[in-house]
Design goal:
By secondary structure, this protein is of the alpha/beta class. The chain folds into 2 domains: 4-74, Transcription elongation factor, GreA/GreB, N-terminal domain (Helix Hairpins); 76-155, Chitinase A, domain 3. Helices cover 38% and strands 26% of the residues. The chain has a 5-stranded mixed beta sheet. Strands 1-2 form a two-stranded parallel ribbon. Helix 1 (8-37) packs antiparallel against helix 2 (46-69). The radius of gyration is 21 Å and the shape is elongated.
Length: 157
């Protein structure tokens, strides 16, 4: 089984979600099913059907989290350093066309959230940045055409 690289923060967040779903959500859903069952005829009971659907979705997410957390390779980014971009780096770069500055951290697939400033190591932008240093330019193919960026700063925080 391949290891899944993950930051300490990402692992904590996924572990917290797992614990919440297995302890709190599971109990709440079981209580909702029991309450709906007490209302009588299950064949026409919308509350029962909704609770069973919630249970199915919750159990599916629990299984997904187990398959992510089991092979996790937790990497403490604060112990990393270097002049080039690699897993865990927080990279500030400049769009060479719009002069817009962006900052993203390169993280594992399960913890990626572009709106939160975290891009997956397997994403096109992260793959283009890997191995580059401050001052280097890189190009990313996007649906609207190719985009050019220049790396302004690399940090391991």
């Amino acid at each position: 089984m391949d290891k899944i690289p993950m930051t300490v923060g990402g692992h904590k967040a996924l572990t917290a979600e797992y614990e919440h779903r297995t302890a709190t959500e599971r109990r709440r859903i079981i209580e909702a099913i029991a309450e709906a069952r007490a209302h009588g005829d299950l064949s026409e009971n919308a509350e029962y059907s909704a609770a069973k659907e919630q249970q199915s979705l919750n159990e599916g997410r629990i299984r997904e989290l187990e398959s992510i957390l089991a092979p996790a390779d937790i990497i403490d980014v604060t112990k990393l350093s270097g002049a080039s971009v690699k897993f865990g780096a927080t990279v500030t770069f400049l769009d060479e066309d719009t002069e817009e500055e962006k900052t993203y951290q390169v993280v594992g697939d399960p913890e990626a959230d572009a709106t939160g400033g975290r891009v997956s190591i397997s994403s096109p932008i992260a793959r283009a940045m890997i191995g580059k240093e401050e001052g280097d330019s890189f190009e990313v193919s996007a649906p609207g055409g190719s985009r050019s960026y220049e790396i302004v700063k690399i940090q391991y925080i």
